[in-house]
């Protein structure tokens, strides 16, 4: 970097006592408000899904897309959003993301059908993707190198705490207000983020900003991810060997191969493949995918288990998840301190082993499992996930070349969102297949007359753990028998899904052995 550029950066250094603009800690506060919305919405909707399903008459596949559409839009657009920030400035990108996120949240609240909810959730995810890389870029510009790791740690803690608090916040809003309020709450928060951003933030952009966008790369990656997730979600309905399923899954593989080839030819590729020459970076990225696969997929089923099988209210379900959320909040700073002293490898491996144990424990839950047993596995999961979330930035960004550190930050977030989307889809497919296998036998044992025309409806109800209403004059033993058949089928599917999640978490623990502390500094920032 030339001396003149360094001088410019020094003159514009945030923290100038004459103005609050660019103040490091106020910058952290501002971006934390914006990112909090995005992280919160990743899990807050899970607690509202059962109510949304009932109110809008959504199918299991539809309700999965309320979560998967949001996560997938985030995942596909994150790296592109990082390049937009480099090109047009991180402040402007952050403000557009915050305003758009608030606007689409309001649109979801006013939606009158599940199709509209899914559409606006996808748009919400796109605006959310603008926020996260821009937030990290603004932090890199606001803090001196010796304090940057602390700032990123706090920023990561906000994400972890918001993700963990989602079920509690969602439960309170759904029970005492409405499911729409889960989205309306983002409007004032978004307006606060925009107001603080206009007042506090100082724009930062890369010195060698991208001059063009890899449009073919964006299209190929977006198409590949859409075909993959859509094929997995529809496979239980179509059949895994059905030509439609094979076309979508095969198309996803082909699009990814073409995407990888194009990245070696593009002038400014969406994801420079040179990043993956680093074994720790590659291991860390895949580890994030697997961790999110297990976590987001698991939380999706737990909310239905608590509300539909145990008959809890949304807020009671959130309270029962408190051991997990509390351990994530408490575990994050502890994990950060441990990683600072001994590096990320041991904490990440230990964390994923805890998560594996938690998933195996959850696979043993029955229809009548008590609060104490559930809380034990929730505590283990919260403690296990914290080191992975805290250590991810250091492993991935720290092992990237300096000139690609911004792209690596987007890659870390994209990996988590892709994993979450795939986890919801794949574990949902596993659950659906198991329920379809065991439900007929469970219904036969009730010895109740079942109309064959009700078969598909009962299968969909069992996938959500919802006992269908019976005629008013039905004897109570018959009502209980039907509910037991539905709930037992749901729990069988959930058990298999958590077993698969445990295997995935164990594989992630093995990948953790290849991680190490990054040696690259973030480098000086340029302010304009």
TrEMBL record:
Transmembrane feature ranges: 25-51, 63-81, 93-112, 118-139, 151-170, 182-201, 213-233, 245-262, 283-306, 318-339, 346-365, 377-402, 490-514
Record's keyword annotation contains Transmembrane helix: yes
Signal peptide residues on this chain, from the entry's feature table: none
Transport keyword on record: yes
Database matches in InterPro entries: EmrB-like (IPR004638), MFS (IPR011701), MFS_dom (IPR020846), MFS_trans_sf (IPR036259)
Pfam family name, one: MFS_1
Segments forming domain Major facilitator superfamily (MFS) profile: 27-520
Keywords, alphabetical: Antibiotic resistance, Cell membrane, Membrane, Transmembrane, Transmembrane helix, Transport
Localization (cell): Cell membrane
Membrane topology: Multi-pass membrane protein
Name the record gives this protein: MFS transporter
Organism: Kitasatospora cinereorecta
């Amino acid at each position: 970097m030339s001396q003149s550029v360094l001088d410019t950066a020094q003159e514009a250094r945030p923290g100038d006592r004459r103005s609050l603009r660019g103040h490091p800690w106020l910058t952290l506060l501002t971006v934390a408000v914006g990112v909090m919305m995005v992280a919160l919405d990743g899990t807050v909707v899970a607690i509202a899904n059962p109510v949304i399903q009932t109110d809008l008459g959504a199918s299991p596949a539809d309700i999965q897309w309320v979560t998967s559409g949001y996560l997938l839009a985030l995942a596909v657009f994150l790296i592109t959003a990082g390049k937009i920030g480099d090109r047009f400035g991180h402040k402007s990108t952050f403000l557009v993301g915050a305003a758009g996120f608030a606007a689409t949240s309001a649109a979801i609240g006013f939606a009158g059908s599940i199709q509209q909810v899914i559409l606006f959730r996808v748009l919400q995810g796109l605006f959310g993707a603008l926020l996260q890389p821009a937030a990290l870029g603004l932090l890199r510009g606001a803090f001196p190198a010796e304090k940057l790791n602390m700032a990123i740690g706090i920023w990561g803690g906000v994400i972890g705490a918001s993700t963990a608090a989602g079920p509690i916040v969602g439960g309170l809003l759904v029970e005492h207000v409405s499911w729409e309020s889960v989205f309306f709450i983002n409007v004032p928060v978004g307006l606060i983020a925009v107001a603080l951003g206009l007042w506090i933030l100082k724009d930062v952009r890369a010195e060698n900003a991208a001059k063009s966008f890899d449009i073919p790369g964006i299209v190929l990656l977006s198409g590949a991810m859409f075909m993959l997730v859509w094929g997995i979600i529809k496979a239980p309905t179509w059949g895994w060997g059905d030509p439609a399923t094979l076309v979508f899954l095969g198309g996803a593989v082909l699009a990814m191969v073409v995407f990888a080839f194009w990245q070696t030819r593009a002038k400014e590729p969406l994801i420079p493949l040179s990043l993956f020459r680093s074994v720790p970076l590659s291991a860390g990225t895949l580890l994030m995918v697997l961790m999110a696969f297990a976590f987001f997929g698991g939380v999706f089923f737990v909310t239905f288990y608590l509300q539909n099988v145990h008959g809890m209210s949304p807020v009671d379900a959130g309270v029962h998840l408190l051991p997990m959320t509390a351990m994530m909040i408490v575990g994050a700073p502890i994990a950060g301190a441990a990683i600072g002293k001994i590096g990320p490898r041991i904490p990440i491996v230990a964390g994923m082993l805890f998560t594996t144990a938690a998933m195996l424990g959850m696979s043993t839950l029955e229809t009548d499992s008590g609060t104490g047993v559930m809380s034990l596995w929730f505590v283990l999961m919260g403690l296990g996930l914290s080191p992975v979330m805290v250590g991810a930035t250091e492993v991935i960004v720290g092992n990237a070349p300096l000139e690609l550190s911004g792209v690596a930050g987007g890659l870390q977030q994209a990996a988590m969102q892709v994993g979450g989307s795939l986890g919801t889809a794949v574990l949902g497919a596993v659950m659906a297949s198991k329920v379809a296998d065991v439900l007929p036998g469970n219904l036969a044992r009730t010895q109740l007359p079942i109309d064959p025309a009700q078969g598909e409806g009962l299968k969909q109800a069992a996938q959500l753990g919802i006992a269908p209403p019976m005629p008013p004059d039905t004897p109570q033993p018959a009502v209980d028998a039907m509910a037991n058949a539905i709930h037992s089928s749901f729990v069988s599917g959930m058990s298999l899904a958590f077993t698969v999640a445990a295997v995935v978490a164990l594989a992630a623990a093995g990948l953790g052995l290849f991680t190490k502390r990054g040696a690259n500094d973030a480098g000086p920032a340029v302010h304009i």
